[in-house]
Amino acid sequence: MVADPLVVFMPSGKRGHFPVGTPVLTAARRLGVDLDSVCGGRGICSKCQVSPGIGSFPKLGLTVTEDALSPWNAVEARYDEKRGLKPGRRLGCQATIQKDVVIDVPEGSQVHRQVVRKDATAREITLDAATRLMLVSVDEPDMHTPTGDLERLNRALKAQWNLDGVTAPLPVLAKLQGALRKGDWSVTVAIHHDHRDTPRLVDVWPGFYEGGIYGLAIDLGSTTIAAHLCNLQTGEVVLSSGIMNPQIRFGEDLMSRVSYAMMNPGGDVEMTRAVREALNVLIEELIADAKLEPRAVVEAVIVCNPVMHHLLLGIDPVELGQAPFALATSSALSLAMQELELTALNPAARAYLLPCIAGHVGADAAAVALSEAPGQQEALTLVVDVGTNAEILLGDRTKVLACSSPTGPAFEGAQISSGQRAAPGAIEAIRIDPDTKEPRFRVIGCDLWSDEDGFDAATKATGITGICGSGIIEAVAEMRMAGLVDASGLIGSAEQAGTPRLQPEGRTQVYVIYDDGDRRITVTQGDIRAIQLAKSALYAGARLLMDARGVDRVERIVLAGAFGAHISPLHAMVLGMIPDARLEDVSSAGNAAGTGARIALLNRAARAEIEETVTRIQKVETAIEPRFQDHFVAANALPHASDPFPELSKIVTLPDVSFNQAGQEGGRQRRRKRS
Amino acid sequence: MVADPLVVFMPSGKRGHFPVGTPVLTAARRLGVDLDSVCGGRGICSKCQVSPGIGSFPKLGLTVTEDALSPWNAVEARYDEKRGLKPGRRLGCQATIQKDVVIDVPEGSQVHRQVVRKDATAREITLDAATRLMLVSVDEPDMHTPTGDLERLNRALKAQWNLDGVTAPLPVLAKLQGALRKGDWSVTVAIHHDHRDTPRLVDVWPGFYEGGIYGLAIDLGSTTIAAHLCNLQTGEVVLSSGIMNPQIRFGEDLMSRVSYAMMNPGGDVEMTRAVREALNVLIEELIADAKLEPRAVVEAVIVCNPVMHHLLLGIDPVELGQAPFALATSSALSLAMQELELTALNPAARAYLLPCIAGHVGADAAAVALSEAPGQQEALTLVVDVGTNAEILLGDRTKVLACSSPTGPAFEGAQISSGQRAAPGAIEAIRIDPDTKEPRFRVIGCDLWSDEDGFDAATKATGITGICGSGIIEAVAEMRMAGLVDASGLIGSAEQAGTPRLQPEGRTQVYVIYDDGDRRITVTQGDIRAIQLAKSALYAGARLLMDARGVDRVERIVLAGAFGAHISPLHAMVLGMIPDARLEDVSSAGNAAGTGARIALLNRAARAEIEETVTRIQKVETAIEPRFQDHFVAANALPHASDPFPELSKIVTLPDVSFNQAGQEGGRQRRRKRS
């Protein structure tokens, strides 16, 4: 008796003997090989493409001949004619095993393929979305053994996809009968099945649905709302977009919004309505721009701070404005998007909200913890998520601490005289010559510096319109390095600092970055004060965590935030936004909260992981910690009144100027190394 | 060492030894004695009242002394002063065990007390509602170990009520923080926890809520919608009410409504809106009449036929209009009332829909099966639920068969010339003297017959306004018995039948029951034909089940339906609505579907029971069974063209008249016993 042929799947190396004639997909499923299929092996979806390896495989002790798989059949020929199969590819559900064979499963055919993150190194995402498409053949009804169409669909899902007890919301149930009959008893269903809920029917299409399904990763910030539209079958980000949080009109920072709710009966309801409307607008635009049908967008993951969390859910945030800062609920939530009145997408779409860590440390901090995984680091890592409300995490394998700090919206360009959001025309980088005190800058939408040839032509369309968050950070830091601003944050006069770009405005000075007669872009004393307040809050929060951990310095710093990727580590350290560190130990993680949302959207196991992780994070409440005030006051200076910055001083020498008229030190400019 | 005192609870007989000082409630809980408590033993709710038995209990070998329980304490004294305790009663949570004692748990203190049904004998209901009230003390938030209020409520529910994983819909969650603080960290929660869902918070009140919670048992019929408002803590029916189903304007019977949906795009949506609006009106009126707050009504059970089921759910019923009559779903459903747009009650109220048995045999038939339990009977029992669509069940312990039959609305007084719904002024009973052919009758709202003294005065307020369902059944049967109508259903002329109350109207005759010059109430030939069609459909359905069972007669008949209790068994049999049987074997069960809904509302185990029962009921599809037509035609005669009615003929001799002019038999009136 001849043994059944041996099949070896690569790259997993899983192997087994199967009778001649076994389809490759069947063999893969028996062995638990990760080979995708939406149509369940009907030769329709082409997700199960494989590449047989022909030739000699000495390590496996195998020689594979050309006839190891069955010849092309009609289904493959038709598919190739209509869509084109790459050379060497076969459909795993059609090709059957004839002889010993090595089968390569290309990455695109793996269900749980790796999604490569463009913007960070912390972790890859294994695609395993909570919502999946499945083609299923349903028995026709039989009058003599009557059962409902949903019950027969469930029987088919159990038999064909090993899925039990799928329920259907009424609007989806209302579509089921029509779809089954139109599809001649074959339908594609979108099933949501995350780590905590029972499986749920989200949508149904007659026959084989080729349109794909999508999800949204939403970072709902105090000032800006950012969303990534992701393909749930490939993990790819199709489109990203942002919108201002319209709640700004009720208060720029969180506490002023809480106050608004306290002072104005029904104010919380107004703010809930505003944020839900903005989300609907953002979602609608994203879907329209991506040229998708709204029903193709079937899921969303939302991360936000506790106040936004409560306002989104329709819960009065008043308790978050006073000790003990009790959340209404801290657990992760799985909801229908319709419960949030988010209706611009599939009406049965689900929403997942990450857990909150504490009254001031929200689901956005949890998302940062998921994305940056400080608890998995060997080096003691400080993660600073810069925003109107900053999330700060400090930890390593042994322990993770977290707090939030109310930095205000200055870092996002708000409360800044020439501030604007990051958009074409905004100054995002700036350098000031320490000798001439002349600035050069770059604007969003153009790679040239303003002193390079062609800059004027290249920026003609957008103009030069203002300064965005990363621009203002660099501007203030550069002013400090060029001796235009002293350690206390005071701007010198033209005489004191020796440049006509310093001009009086009322009783203070401004630094003119740009002036074309029409538009004048300056950094004012008020701008410096706003940045000082913001950076002091950030630093004080980080310092509080370091106190709790009992350390004076950290080994690694990750700058995150909606514009985190654009912050220059050097300038952040000159400002004293972050503690002193070696520059090579400071990295940017981009929008870590948004990335955390995307991870939770694309991988349901990550949801269980972060729900468990947050229970082990130790919370530090900045709002009632007396040392926070002390740290805050000390952090007002640029970079700091008392903390030494030895690593910074190795690479930058800050001019030792003082423009305080009372102290009679104005105008003198001494260079010395900071001790 | 002296043994701990012995405590014996009556009527359960459960016993155990407990240390001196153990509260009676604690002892009851340890022994699993059914002793109610909403406040969890805080001396607030008074639900745990017990009566200690003093004296000698020879069968138990016990003598109980006056000091067997602790003396009255301050809590009991205060409660007695404020509310009054019945003599001999103690609060089980306050009185502690001192010596051997016998404790009687009065019925009112049992959670699972029996609810006595007024209208039927089939079964008692054990109170065990899915929604319960619980008083719970919640830990205050602690800033240093932050958790959400919901999470702390859950911890308290686990500790104090052994309830795990309670979830909260957003609107309830939004109320939680305020209630906890207003109630000083003590709240009463209404928790829904049926046999299939995880527990869910339905409402929350600060402190101890004394208002009670209520549920609705709704029988959604094709013609009328009936609802019982029940107290979920006592099982008592507080109020019942009914309303016409406004879908009548789209078609009087189910198939004409299905046709309406088929012929008019969006017609199903119109009908869904109509029935939901009517339900909201009915619920709103019931709650207002009972002087309750809408939020006190926290649950509903709904039973209906498959077409109403789909229209209520918002599903196009078109598939129910054609073979194979596939339901969109046949399983029982647990929903939020808001998903059905039923908003006149608590916004988080839950709805439970009983399962459907088949495309033509709905949740109403399941409710009848639950209420009348044919599958638990020794005698072969026929249950006929009379309505516009009749549900018919035949069975005994060995097997149950079910079908439905489209009787049309004639039995509910619709399509009858003088017909009206059962309301004061409607003729509900009628007798016709076989010699004088003169009628006498009774109207709803008055116990006197029309030939009794004082009838005119007693009915002056309501007037005599028409004939309701039971009235028309009696009228036609009496006309047959008095020789005014022949076996074919033809009304004789004044000359033929010998009474001036028969008067020509066009080419046919009418019988004048009442004429005061103003209002004239008659039975027309058209009325007789409508009743004949209706009763033939009913009889044919029953006969089809008897064929399937292989029997010619049944041992017991139960007449059910919204007005089932009012149908005279004798008259029903004279008409041939039901098969021949001994009169004493025919009983009325009232609105069995409504009772089934009430059982499912008050006892969650009954939900699991009926879900299991329906899987074992054998369905017979009348719509495609050729014999149904034969049975229907043969059943047109009064009582029947061919089936013998031996039991009926023992007690009634039907005049052998024929008014067919062509047959030249008119006017001759022969009395003979039917063979």
From TrEMBL, chains A, B:
Domain 2Fe-2S ferredoxin-type: 5-109
Lineage top rank: taxon: Bacteria
Molecular function GO labels: iron-sulfur cluster binding
Family annotation (PROSITE patterns): 2FE2S_FER_2
InterPro entries the record matches: 2Fe-2S_ferredoxin-like_sf, 2Fe-2S_ferredoxin-type, Beta-grasp_dom_sf, Corrinoid_activation_enz, Raco-like_middle, Raco-like_middle_sf, RACo_C, RACo_linker
Name of the featured protein: DUF4445 domain-containing protein
Source species of the chain: Palleronia pontilimi
